[in-house]
Amino acid sequence: MKKVDAIIIGFGKGGKTLAADLAKRGWKVAMIERNDGMYGGTCINIGCIPTKTLIHQASETACLTHGDKDAEKRHYREAIEKKNALTAMLRDRNYHNLADDPNITVYHGEGRFISTDAVSVALADGGTLELTSKHIFINTGARSVIPPIEGVRESRHVYTSTTIMQREKLPDNLVIIGGGYIGLEFAAMFAAFGSRVTVLDNHSDFIPKEDRDIAVSVKAVMEKKGVEFRMNARTESIRDTENGVRLSCHDTEEGYSYEIEADAVLLATGRRPETTALDLAAAKIETDRRGAIVVDSRLKTSNPYVRAIGDVRGGPQFTYLSLDDYRIIRDDLFGNHDRNTDDRTPFAYTVFIDPPLSRTGTGEDEARAMGMDIGVVRLPAASVPRTRTLEAPDGLLKAVIDRKTGKILGATLFCAESGEVINLIVMAMKTGQPYTFLRDFIFTHPSMSEALNDLMNQPMA
């Protein structure tokens, strides 16, 4: 049994940042990662970086291929090669950032608990190592959910969000099962590359978490770009054919069945915390019904020696929240114990469709359901001068304002560059500024941020 100052299971964003910090403080750190293709975590290998790289490449398809199908396929292969080169470079850099530190040992193997303060590592090159520490951190991320559809595991044409980015051939016809944010990003991307895309959504309402006017706008824009949506769609079976794959579906509202032919099927049915191999029971660590590790506001589990970081603890799955988990742990170990998960709202998210959809805080529908006294301001994206120079006039901007205090309760931006502009709104909310702060702020011109002048100047509904 080897004793170390800290054990980190999983080479993700929060864990790797914590490892580097602890090493600088002189701690001896053991970093355990079972997959040598995941050094650096989900974001740089199978998440944010590769998907956004491909989305950027997809946006250039029209001007580079001019509708030529063979050219589209060549451009797609080149995009995959660029994505692979980038992720390989980042993975190597992340590995050496830790492995080259004399205070950090990276173990390629699978870790599992053998007691409350000890972990056994089945090393990839053979053998077993046992480690013990009073500080253990779980950062194992999440995995794709495989729905219980007949034939889904046997088909050679079914992919997850991870494996479809390894496919070098552009599908002529792609079916996406799941109309959530992951499904929408891939739908927009493959449609831009030139695929015919059909999204099967088992909900009756499109993106039900968003306000209905935003949902209508997003759906209309995506349909204009060639994406077909089938709502109330339950996929009952998948079977391979001579030329591809056939899906048998049922419309749960109208009651009829139908079939769809495709070259490839993408499962975008959610992600679940990756805890199956950890043997959490041996460490007396509690999980919820979805398998997420239960933590308190400072990320401590039911085991006083163990904390959980990032997607494995459930909730919103964003790299920047995993990074903030690291900050909370750093403050709890070495700081004033001021930070916790309760004080980091509001935060924003962005869905990288075209244009991107960004959201923070409380939506209009939610606020009205709560009986809040609100005012709502809206602005068509086409009225913002910058959208004209970008040739991206689609979309809608809106904000929800407390009529009594003038404080911004939430905002949704479905427009070009919304992923950048939404951060300005979050900062205004976090610092307690009224909506008039953004209404009267001096922004550069022409920019998308100056849209906030006009948005906050609209008459409240």
UniProtKB/TrEMBL annotation:
Binding site for NAD(+): 178-185, 270
Recorded GO MF terms: flavin adenine dinucleotide binding; NAD(P)H dehydrogenase (quinone) activity; oxidoreductase activity, acting on a sulfur group of donors, NAD(P) as acceptor
Keywords linked to the UniProt accession: Disulfide bond, FAD, Flavoprotein, NAD, NADP, Nucleotide-binding, Oxidoreductase, Redox-active center
Residue ranges of the TM segments: none
Active site: 445
Disulfide bonds: 43-48
Residue ranges of every copy of the FAD/NAD(P)-binding domain listed in the record: 5-320
Cofactor note: Binds 1 FAD per subunit.
Pfam family membership, one: Pyr_redox_dim
Binding site for FAD: 52, 111, 311
Residue span, Pyridine nucleotide-disulphide oxidoreductase dimerisation domain: 348-454
Record flagged with keyword Phosphoprotein: no
Reported cofactor(s): FAD
SUPFAM superfamilies given in the database record: FAD/NAD(P)-binding domain, FAD/NAD-linked reductases, dimerisation (C-terminal) domain
The keyword Transit peptide belongs to this UniProt entry's keyword annotation: no
Sequence similarity: Belongs to the class-I pyridine nucleotide-disulfide oxidoreductase family.
Listed name of the protein: FAD-dependent oxidoreductase
